[in-house]
Amino acid sequence: MVVMVNKMDDPSCNWKKERWDEIRTGLLPFLLKTGYKETDIYWVPISGLTGANLLKPLEKSVCSWYDGPTFMEIIDNLPVEKRDAEGPLRIPILDKQKDRGIVIHGKVMQGTVRVGDKIALSPHYTPSQVGFILDHKN
């Protein structure tokens, strides 16, 4: 899923629908060529500086043409992908620290890992071994 947002409070566009349509028309072909489907793309006008339409909906006096959800409403309603315990191991690194070598903290997103498993850390394929696992059910 992709959430496309656009800085609409800039003085050059000032929440104008014409600029919004121009941006969508220009970006959509690129996104479709990279493999996204039109149903995977959410378009949301926001202001990163003021936070407009991030949490609270826009007032009609600011942007009368948009009546869709806020950025956070879209994020909160995205479907959660199921984890594949039989798939290739995928553990994004969340933190690391130097303590008797290097300790890496991550969350298993896919696959299965056990204490003692030998793994390789990408991108350099550094050989490593799983020392311990904190088991959280969520």
Alpha-carbon Rg, integer: 21 Å
Total helices: the number is: 2
Report strand %.
15-25%
By CATH reckoning, the class of the largest domain would read Alpha Beta
What do we call the CATH topology of the largest domain?
A: Rossmann fold
The side-by-side strand order for the widest beta sheet comes to 1-2
Return the average pLDDT rounded to an integer: 86
Give the % helix.
10-25%
Q: How can the largest sheet be summarized?
A: 2 strands, parallel
Q: What are the segments in which pLDDT stays under 50 over at least 5 consecutive residues?
A: none
N-to-C order of helices and strands:
EHEHEEEE
What class would the helix/strand composition place it in? alpha+beta
- Calculate the terminal CA-CA distance, rounded to whole Å: 22 Å
What is the CATH homologous superfamily assignment of the largest domain?
Answer: P-loop containing nucleotide triphosphate hydrolases
Number of strands: 6
- In the CATH hierarchy, the architecture of the largest domain is 3-Layer(aba) Sandwich
**What spatial form do the alpha-carbon principal axes imply?**
elongated
Number of domains as seen in the coordinates: 2
